[in-house]
Design brief:
Radius of gyration: 26 Å
Number of helices: 15
Largest sheet: 8 strands, parallel, barrel
Structural class: alpha/beta
Strand content: 15-25%
Strand order of the largest sheet: 9-10-13-14-15-16-17-18
Distance between the termini: 72 Å
Oligomer: single chain
């Protein structure tokens, strides 16, 4: 008997959850008798499914030490012995420190950042066997080595974590450069590198003070995944493994008026025909997925997970997954992609939400998409005291009481799925717009994320397709005309934006006033937004003119956050007098430190 796959192919002794599912895949193995020989390794259950090619073994490892033990499959006189390793843990769960509001995440699409190893651009035997940088929907050749080669650039910029779009295998015929059609949950895509290279990248990042966040997808996989090509059972995938299109209307999950049909079509429907929708209500699917995430945390030491399309998967399963991960790793963080159009809907998904009670998602962090939408309006508009511009940001944050923890919101003004903040060259020319938006993003509540290339005003228009949002970083490929990784490759507004970004990020790094501080803000006066971050007697006050004209601001309403008669503005370096009034230039930003 030939065993094609073992998942996971090794595990660890001493995990908090002593149960281990081992999936074996091989031709006609289901009829085998199974025995396990190992010290204190107990075979609790052997599960056979519809396909004759799978066995699911459930082991109890409560008292099992690190060892290599044997799994024996018997069919009459034929026997196959499979050695299985239980490794000694090299880290404690409490050693893994997740990302927090003290961090800034730098989002990278590996295929489009830098090509460090051209030899893995095409891998023999994989279904997509070419690279074409002129094809915005094709593979361009970026890889893990390309990221590793530029960790110094990333660390020097001042971010403290990198979030990588999915790096697991996407062995699809085409269009999967983005990583969201996984065909093997336990394997790094060989065009990016190896599992060992990924682990080394995490270690190198840690050595430079950078955390690593891994993108995962439990809602769906790629249609070339062996679990779909040879389904263990029909109910491994929703709608009995038959393609039914999702409505994408996941608000129905929280809608107290929603029909059962609306809920089912939203969560059980498929994204596309080539992305089969996994049925997490099947306990074997659930255990398989949970173990894949724990395996990567334990193996590579990652600091966080970003879970794609979080509300599209089964609520109870996702809740169980979040709880199991954070039970094993108490300081770990998970952020769910909660792409919904209101703070009320998003707040439902955060751990300890009063709106979801008595249910609990156990999801620590949610993505603040409504704020993202408002930031893409606010800095293009004139602000007045009741509407428009910065008023929208003030008004939105007055509603933060809906969140169980407003500091655990991932805040951003663009990512790989949205138009870039600098959508086109015209917007990129408006440097004041960029500086105001970045200052707000890096000083308000939450966990900021910036998208690779933001710092050099890279453009991208959703209307032109996703490929336009995911252009190659200049200098990431040998032969590129210019390289924005080095100072001489950054000129004009790109240099000004980079220098401003780097200055602000490095000021924020390790600054507890921003990373841990409370937020106090004031209603808009004279088109100006004023807010304070405060921690342990220190504070920073942001004053931002949201209009295209000079403003005279009466300072009387702000005395509780202006404890002295003058303060230094971090951005300009000048000392600002804080008398009865303050003169502000059009779109001026002050960042005062006390």
């Amino acid at each position: 008997m030939e065993i094609n796959r073992i998942a996971p192919n090794f595990w660890w002794a001493g995990m908090k959850n002593p149960e281990l599912q081992i999936m074996l895949h091989g031709e006609d193995i289901a009829s085998s008798a199974v025995s396990v020989t190992g010290k204190n390794v107990i075979l609790k259950e052997t599960v056979r499914q519809d396909s004759p090619n799978y066995l699911f073994l459930y082991l109890d490892l409560t008292d099992a030490p690190a060892q290599t033990f044997d799994i024996t499959l018997s069919q009459g006189k034929k026997k196959t012995t499979i050695p299985y390793e239980l490794k000694q843990r090299t880290r404690k769960g409490s050693d893994i420190q997740g990302f927090t509001s003290e961090d800034v995440l730098y989002l990278i699409m590996p295929d489009r950042f830098a090509n460090g190893n051209p030899e893995n651009d095409v891998v023999e035997g994989m279904l997509e066997n070419k690279v074409d940088r002129n094809d915005s929907f094709g593979r361009h050749g970026g890889d893990l080595k390309g990221i590793a080669d530029h960790l110094d650039y990333i660390a020097d910029l001042g971010v403290t974590a990198i979030w990588l779009n999915p790096t697991q295998e996407n062995d699809m015929p085409g269009g999967s450069y983005h990583g969201y059609a996984i065909t093997d949950y336990y394997q790094i895509d060989r065009r990016f590198g190896s599992n060992e290279e990924f682990k080394d990248l995490v270690d190198q990042a840690h050595g430079k003070g950078l955390k690593v966040v891994m993108d995962m997808i439990f809602n769906h996989c790629g249609s070339e995944n062996y679990l779909f090509r040879d389904k263990p059972s029909k109910d491994w995938f929703n709608f009995r493994s038959e393609y039914v299109q999702t409505s994408f209307k996941t608000a129905s999950v929280m809608d107290i008026h929603a029909s059962e049909y609306e809920k089912k079509i939203a969560t059980d429907g498929w994204f596309t025909e080539v992305m089969p929708d996994l049925n997490q209500r099947n306990r074997h699917v659930a255990r398989y997925l949970i173990q894949t995430s724990i395996w990567w945390i334990e193996y590579a030491g990652i600091n966080g997970i970003r879970q794609d399309t979080h509300p599209y998967a089964d609520f109870d399963f996702m809740s169980q997954w979040c709880k199991e991960v954070t039970d094993e790793y108490p300081y770990f963080n998970i952020v769910g992609e909660t792409w919904l159009n209101s703070n009320v809907l998003i707040s439902y998904w955060q751990k300890d939400s009063k709106l979801a009670f008595p249910k609990n998602s156990y999801l620590p962090t949610v993505m603040d998409f409504p704020l993202q939408a408002l930031m893409n309006q606010a800095f293009d508009e004139e602000t007045n005291d009741w509407a428009g511009g910065l008023y929208k940001l003030y008004d939105y944050q007055t509603q933060d009481l809906v969140y169980a923890n407003p500091m655990n919101l991932l805040t951003f003004f663009d990512n790989h799925d949205t138009a870039r903040f600098t959508t086109d060259d015209e917007k990129a020319k408006n440097i004041n717009r960029y500086k105001q938006a970045l200052t707000f993003l890096l000083t308000t509540r939450g966990i900021p994320q910036i998208y690779y290339g933001t710092e050099i005003l890279m453009t991208g228009d959703k209307a032109k397709g996703d490929g336009d949002l995911r252009k190659d970083f200049p200098g990431g490929w040998a032969g590129d005309a210019t390289s924005s990784f080095v100072p001489e490759g950054r000129t004009g507004l790109a240099k000004e934006a980079f220098d401003f970004t780097r200055k602000l990020l490095n000021w924020r790094k390790g600054n507890a006033v921003i990373g841990k501080g409370s937020l106090k803000h004031f209603s808009i006066q004279n088109g100006t937004y004023v807010y304070e971050r405060k921690h342990n007697g220190k504070s920073a006050v942001v004053i931002m003119n949201g209009t295209d004209k000079a403003q005279t601001l009466n300072l009387a309403p702000y005395r509780e956050v202006l404890p002295r008669a003058e303060a230094k503005d971090f951005l300009s370096g000048r000392t600002v007098a804080l008398g009865e009034t303050l003169e502000l230039q059009p779109r001026e930003i002050l960042l005062l430190e006390f």
